[in-house]
Amino acid sequence: GEKWVLMKTAQTPTNIAVIKYWGKRDETLILPVNDSISVTLDPAHLCTTTTVAVSPAFQQDRMWLNGKEMSLSGGRYQNCLREIRKRAREVEDKERGIKIEKKDWEKLHLHIASYNNFPTAAGLASSAAGFACLVFALAKLMNVSEDESQLSAIARQGSGSACRSLFGGFVKWIMGKEDDGSDSLAVQLVDEKHWEDLFIIIAVVSSRQKETSSTSGMRESVETSSLLQHRAKEVVPKRTIQMEEAIQYRDFASFAKLACADSNQFHAVCLDTLPPIFYMNDTSHRQVLVYICWIISYVEKWNRSEGTPQVAYTFDAGPNAVLIARDRKAAAQLIQRLLFYFPPKSDTDLDSYLLGDKTILKD
Ligand code: PMV
């Protein structure tokens, strides 16, 4: 038979939501109950690298994640593969005498190798980078002509947050109105050059896999949390407009206020869910809980004492803190303080963090 292999590689960073996506109105198509906004990280740090290959010698579609073979039978992979294959076009490599016609793509099998340079499924949006990268690499291999927004609607069917990783800078996932999901896609608000002063620090406090997957967590919240209904209808629509403005004008004070409030409301929705979901406190590690409380109240306190906010915090479905500093100087100060105060060494220490923080409630 024929011996050739054709390959493409792509690299995609993860993204961190500053207005959170939480709750689906359609679980199969992955359509959200509200818009969300995120910042895409620098590809040098948290990213996925995916190589996709096609060859007439391949017997079936196969995928390896961090060197370990994994099943592609899940609906999410199948949906992405099907949607991309539908849009595949003719590919020709004249030098090597390879020609793949449009109709050939249905019969040809793929091998996919993907690497994360960060812990998988620990609340660091590994699925976001993963599905975005997969869809992008396949689109390159198959000479797909759709633009990034159109590709984002495919990546969305792998993992909702993945649709926002097709762009750099600040990105908005528009929830859309259509039942078929055709208008539920990502658009770039500003590129990575727009707000270069921002400095993002990710404190990985636990790389354990989260206990409640975001899919079942969201389902339970949609079914049981009245706060989620209120958030989706009343809060997020206004907040996204304000957040877009804050980003446009590089207004860090508003940005920090909105991002912290939105992270806190997302976790409040989790607590309002039946049974309650505790993403921020990895209960098996008491120190993690203290650390989280401390970071939140420390940042709140520091921001107030400075007159103008220096740092915003945001937490996804795990205890890892994402801290967004207004500039390099604020970031350096923050790291210095984090290293100075941590870890708490005794119960007295622990109490003093928690009690000490009460003072911020008074002013
Ligand atoms: O894309 P998913 O299903 O992993 O959901 C991610 C949800 C959050 O990370 C908690 C929020 C967000 O908008 O990224």
TrEMBL record:
It holds the Pfam family MVD-like_N. It comes from the Eukaryota. It catalyses: (R)-5-diphosphomevalonate + ATP = isopentenyl diphosphate + ADP + phosphate + CO2. Residues 13-186 form the Diphosphomevalonate decarboxylase-like N-terminal domain. SUPFAM superfamilies: GHMP Kinase, C-terminal domain, Ribosomal protein S5 domain 2-like. InterPro entries: GHMP_kinase_C_sf (IPR036554), Mev_decarb (IPR005935), Mev_diP_decarb (IPR029765), MVD-like_N (IPR053859), Mvd1_C (IPR041431), Ribosomal_Su5_D2-typ_SF (IPR020568), Ribsml_uS5_D2-typ_fold_subgr (IPR014721). It is found in: Peroxisome. GO terms for cellular component: cytosol; peroxisome. The keyword Transcription does not apply. Performs the first committed step in the biosynthesis of isoprene-containing compounds such as sterols and terpenoids. This is Diphosphomevalonate decarboxylase. It comes from Gossypium arboreum.
